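User: Teach me something about this protein's shape.
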Amino acid sequence: MEQILSIQSTVTIGFVGNNVAGPVITHLGHQPLLVNTVALAAHPGYGLFAGGPMPDATFNAILGALPALGRLNTIGTVITGYLGALKQASAISKLIKAWQLERSEGSYVLDPVLGDDGRIYVNDKLVTAMRDKLLPLANFVTPNQFELELLSGQTVRDIPSADNAAQHLLEQYHHLKGVLVTGVTHIDNSIHDRFISQTDLVDMAYKKRTSGIAGGGDLLTTIFASWLASGHSFKNSFRAASAQAHAIIDRSNNHLEINLLENMDQLKTIPRL
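Assistant: First, the predicted structure itself:
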């Protein structure tokens, strides 16, 4: 059992961010350590905004307590997702650097929750902060097609351009061991999840859905990180994460969010590796 630190959003209603990470990490046999970046009544897809970012002083105090409590050498994997404020990127960067000195063999998985379908969710300065402060420290990054554009500065419209943009990131950021890009469109009306590293390329293809669903990327990232923490290879962790996340998404009848708890049994299904 590994301790997995997850730094992302929490909501009262639904399953996104840490509401996904906590149950999934536990179900897959690891201990979640959850730090919330923002606390909302529900994700913005509900059309009602209530709540807000964690106060800087509170957020910094919680992150600062982790080394004081001796957790830097017990955490094996770190996930970061949606950030609620610009200063959070600097605080997370400081923690990750200290943790990587303690656990150089650990994995930092960056889920750059910035936008989708051509629409940015966050302040432009937060895009820059994530690219400049967090991406250089990440071992794995899990953007969707639009987020890959934002991080790489390259146009991504199909599989070849997605692979080129991913290779650009691998060449530019030397900590990166792999890029997991999700939701890449293809001319045959399919969507593809792709794992690209310096030595491997893995493709998982699915039928394109009529609409997206909140929490799917958070789910894939958490499954991937949990499989890594269990000692599986990068490729097999990606295959499991993509297959299991899509299986749960396909069984979710609510377009607003994944039906997670009703479909946790899908996490027991070992995909063909």
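Now, about its shape. The mean pLDDT is 93. The first helix runs from residue 18 to 27. If you'd like, I can walk through any region in more detail.
User: That's plenty for now, thanks!
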